[in-house]
Every structure is written in structure tokens, then in C-alpha cells.
Specification:
By secondary structure, this protein is mainly alpha-helical. It is built from 5 helices and no strands.
């Protein structure tokens, strides 16, 4: 799993970009990720590290899925909606960045 700090930072930067974009005229093009990476070597390096780590992480953690299935069937799976929403938001941001 990716460090929450990295994901929070990406979220904060995205929110700043969205706020800045509110004053943008419709005729202006949105900033492309590739352009951001070219202009900011530190960001490009961070994205490269994240991509490298993501390549070594399996798409599905079968042991975790099996554990959650058992807990769900047993009726002892507590769902924190805030935590679920936060993870979905992180995944959305990563999908956009990568």
C-alpha cells in the first residue's frame, strides 16, 4: 500500500489545482500531467517511485480478500464509511496522476 502522506499531498495539490482552475477561462486548456512532470523534476521522481512500487504490488491481495469474506460472512466486519471514501478518493487521484 502507498504511504498515506504521499496520497494526501497529491490530494492537496489537486484541490489547489481545482481551486485555481475555477477562475480560468473556458478557452484555456487544462494542465496536462505530462507537462507538470516535465516542469517539476521532484514530482516526476515521486511519480516514478510510486509507479515502481505499484508494479511490484499485486492487483488483488487474495489472502486479504479471503479474510474479509470470512469476516463478512461471520457478521463481524465493521465498515468505516469515512475510511472507505478516503481510500476511493486516493485511488481516483492516483488513477488520474498515473
Amino acid at each position: 500500500m502507498l504511504p498515506p502522506e504521499l496520497l494526501r499531498e497529491a490530494l492537496q495539490e489537486r484541490l489547489v489545482d481545482l481551486d485555481a482552475g475555477k477562475g480560468r477561462k473556458r478557452s484555456q486548456k487544462p494542465v496536462r500531467v505530462e507537462d507538470l512532470l516535465r516542469r517539476d523534476p521532484a514530482l516526476a521522481e515521486a511519480v516514478a517511485r510510486v509507479r515502481g512500487k505499484m508494479g511490484s504490488v499485486p492487483d488483488v491481495r487474495t489472502e486479504r480478500v479471503d479474510e474479509l469474506k470470512k469476516r463478512l460472512k461471520g457478521g463481524c466486519l465493521d465498515m468505516d464509511s469515512h475510511s472507505v471514501a478516503e481510500k476511493l478518493l486516493y485511488e481516483t487521484i492516483l488513477d488520474e496522476l498515473l
